[in-house]
Amino acid sequence: MATLKDVAQEAGLTVTTVSRVLNNRGYISDDARKRVHDAVEKLHYHPNEAARSLQNSSLSRTIGLIVPHIRHPYFSELINQLENEARKREYNILLFNSQKNIEKMEEYMNLCVANRVAGMILCSGSVDISLLKKVNMPLITLESYAEACTSSIECDNRQGGGLAARCLADCGCKHLLYVGGQEGIPMPADRRAEGFVNVCREREIEHIECTTYKYQFDAMDYVELFVKVLREHPETDGIFASSDMLAAHAIQACRRLDIKVPDQMQIVGFDDVMVSTLTTPQLTTIHQPILEMAQDTVRCLTDILAGEIVPRRIMLPVTLVERGSTRQL
Question: The sheet that has 206-212: what strands, in order across it?
């Protein structure tokens, strides 16, 4: 029967590195991960499950979850789905609200370690990679990707941006506005803008892009931003907002400016959370598969703890949901 030392020799790595790969602990290069997995298959190596059980028994049945906002409709729904999926597998959620503060992020990650959580789920597009490399436990990132994570779960943001642009173009819009992202902060939503802009260029549609600011995200208030931009660009007849929250505020801004939706302005959001059905008219939006993302996240984390090999990156498709804020020609 092959031993851990045999796997290390076959892979040309140290026993410590092989152990880290098999237990998904800390930063591991893709090359090292592949060499270990190839050696495991060749030698038909099976971990010592008794030792693994003893190691995991010292951990709590708790998963650390760090989000940038708890009031935002998207994160509220995501937290709810993650908690439901964790409970099905007899795990609890330890929730932290970082508010995109790096110092808070580091403090909360240290608290997770101190509480001996079984693993961490990180929902943030802006993370200090050096912090991730210090984490010696399974780390799943949601809606962001970093080499230092164990696995990441994402939706196809670029696809979503393209769907939104095509929808507005097919509805006859000629002057489009994209609002999303945050000034100076790389975010997953940036890929929504890329997909949107690519389609606008393909179809030769005039378009402008507008980023938001952190204080607006913290306050969850974008109405004044839309009022300002629409006054500066009165020719705008279609808006793609990178969240349903933004899109709802775009509807409010149009009402203030006496712009009728969808007769004079057509609007597409992103997420398909509850707020999309509470506006008048209801929002056409890009459906993000939040339930499936939560299921994959918790499943990956518990599979890692059970010694299973999981994908480094999972990308889920999005779909267009048409409601009253757009109209077909």
Answer: 206-212, 175-182, 238-241, 266-271, 284-287, 319-321
